[in-house]
Design goal:
Length: 166
Amino acid sequence: MIQLKDSDLAAAAEKGMDEFLHVFTDAYLLEIGGELTAKNMPLLNGSQHTLLAYHFFTKEMSEGGFVQLIQNGYGGYIFSNPFAKAMKQFGAAELAKLIYKAKEIYDPNKDKLERETTDEEFNALYVDFEEFDELEEIYFDIEEKQTSLIASYVDEHVADFAEIIQ
C-alpha cells in the first residue's frame, strides 16, 4: 500500500485541492516508475487507478484536449475502463456525463484517433474531430468544481487511496 505522511497531506491541503490530490498521484507515479504499463498496473488498487486516471485526464486536457489525451495513449485507460462510473461515485457526476459523451465519439473512431501520426496528421485530427471542442469547453467550465468534489471524496475515503502515517 502507498504510504503518505499526514503532515505532507495537511501542508498540501492548505495550498489547495490540486496540490492535495498531487500528493497522492505523485506517490502513485513514483510507485509505478513514472509510467503506467501492463506490468505495473497491479501495484495500484482501483481507487488509486481512478485518481491516477484523473491526473492524466486533467493534464492532457489542459495541454491539448481529447485528441492529445488519446494520441498520448490514455484513450483506453479513460474510455475502456470504468473511469466515468468511478467519477460519478466520487461525486463528479458532471465530469462522468462529459466522459460518457466523449466515449461516444471515441469508440467508433478509436482506430483513427489512436493510430501513429505525423505532426501534420495529429493537427488534422483537431479539425476531423471538432465535436470534441464543445466537450472541452464544458470541461474547462466544470473542472474546478469537479476537482473539488473529487478532493472531498478522497479526503473522506482516504484509506482507499493511501495508508496515512505520522
